[in-house]
Amino acid sequence: MQNLTMAEGEEVKNKQVVLKDYVSGFPKETDMVLKTGTMRLKVPRGVKGVVVKNLYLSCDPYMRARMSELAEGYVKAFTPGSPIAGLGVAKVLDSGDPSFNIGDLVWGLTGWEEYNLITATETIQNSTNRCAAFVLHRTSPTPSYVEDIAEGLESAPAALFGLFSGRNIGKQVVVVARE
Fold first, then answer.
1. Are 10 and 41 in contact, with CB atoms under 8 Å apart?
2. Do 84 and 131 form a contact (C-beta atoms < 8 A)?
3. Which of 50, 65, 85, 110 has its CA 20 to 30 A from that of 91?
4. Would you list the DSSP string of 94-153?
5. Nearest to 78 by CA among 174, 168, 157
6. What domains are there in the chain, each with its CATH number?
7. Residue 83 neighbours by CB under 8 Å, 6+ apart
8. How far apart are CA 62 and CA 174, in angstroms?
9. Average pLDDT over the chain, rounded to whole?
10. Cα-based angle 135, 82, 172 (whole degrees, multiple of 5)
11. C-alpha to C-alpha distance for 149 and 120, rounded to whole angstroms
12. CB-based burial, 24-39: b 16+ in 10 Å, e otherwise
């Protein structure tokens, strides 16, 4: 095995919640699968994006519509075979965008996976923005206004299904990592 240079970035295992296929009717936990891939923790040269470690993921009712193949809608359908996406809180591990620094806590649209390369940085904001969907304390990435918390990416499909089935009402958050 060759040594990686700092420019190439460390390659890590990356667990992901993937939609198996479009859902017709009521979604079930089995419509999603947990897969493990790999990812480099470095923004590719020339890309104006950020590599993040997801800390919290939000389970939201609008995600149900994204699991169906939509002709039209206010949100784009998920792509079967790819990680689903939603709002989350993450820590920047590498940045090719001058608006974001390593160590910044950000919130916005992210993939349901441990690590994510976000190239559409206009979909995320620094946690200091007062309009954040999650209210973060400056000293710790702890969300406020949480009604139910699920631990671990492995619990994400059950947490999302619980939101749809009425097991949890209100805000459901999945803790991916505590830093």
1. yes
2. no
3. 65
4. EESSTT--TT-EEEEEEESBSEEEE--GGGEEETT-TT-SS-EETTEEEESS-SEEEESG
5. 157
6. 11-175 (3.90.180.10)
7. 16, 17, 18, 111, 112, 113
8. 16
9. 80
10. 30
11. 27
12. eeebeeebbebeeeeb
Query: Is the CB of residue 107 less than 8 Å from the CB of residue 89?
Result: yes
CA-wise closest residue to 95 among 52, 141, 138: 52
pLDDT digits (tens, 9 = 90+) for 58-88: 888 888 888 888 746 677 889 999 999 998 8
What DSSP character marks residue 72?
S
* The pLDDT of residue 84: 94
Higher confidence at residue 59 or residue 173?
A: 59
Query: What 8-state DSSP symbol labels residue 30?
Result: G
With cut-offs at 50, 70 and 90, classify the pLDDT of residue 167: low
Reply yes or no on whether the pLDDT at 132 is more than 60: no
Amino acid at site 89 = V
Tally Cβ neighbours within 10 Å of residue 118: 23
**SS3 of residue 158 by DSSP:** helix
Q: What is the CA radius of gyration of the chain?
A: 16
pLDDT-derived band at 46 (thresholds 50, 70, 90) equals very high
Q: Which two tokens stand for residue 46?
A: 């020339």
More confident residue, 35 or 127: 35
